[in-house]
Amino acid sequence: MPTNKPGTKNSRIIFGTFIFVIGFMSPLLIPFVTRTDWSVGLKSTLSGMLAFGIPEIFILLAVAVMGKQGYEFIKEKALRLLKRFAPSDEVSLTRYRIGLIMFTIPIIIGIVQPYLGSYFPFFKEIPLWWFIISDILFISSFFVLGGNFWDKLSGLFRHSVKIIKG
User: Which of 45, 57, 98, 131 has its CA 20 to 30 A from that of 148?
Assistant: First the structure.
């Protein structure tokens, strides 16, 4: 973003971007807050603010520092970068079936795991890495399933969507 005064707008954009990133990283501090000796009320309040208040405040601060044009510039650059990782709209039948398996397995395990724990003891003591892998599998399934699946999934949350049988 060229300017007449050297370094003025660029430094504001860099500083605003830094504020923006720090705001989005603030939820990462929640585990540190929960490990403190502070009261439960203080930990709960601070954790909630780190998740739902502080990031929004930092976004406003970043926009105030960068200005509207700087914010639009950064947003355009970020969206252009993220478009490279967007899933393709059309996928093959095999890829779609693999994606559906990746999508449903974590959901089914998450639903039945609490019930099977009383019958099979190993379901009660599942290690954390198992849940992390399950979440990664679930999230990556959206990229395997493709963009048309996103449209189908978003249709679940809109009342006016009609299914056309073809």
Answer: 131
Cβ–Cβ contacts within 10 Å for residue 14, how many?
14
Name the residue among 19, 43, 15, 14 with its Cα closest to residue 29: 43
CA distance readout (Å), 21 to 4, 28, 31, 36: 27, 12, 19, 25
30-31-37 Cα angle (round to 5): 100
Residue 29: C-alpha distances to residues 5, 18, 53, 149 (Å): 38, 17, 13, 34
Quick one: tokens of 81? Answer: 């970068």
5 has pLDDT over 80: no
The 10s digit of each residue's pLDDT in 58-103 is 999 999 999 888 888 888 888 888 777 766 778 889 999 999 999 9
Alpha-carbon distance of 11 to 6, in angstroms, equals 9
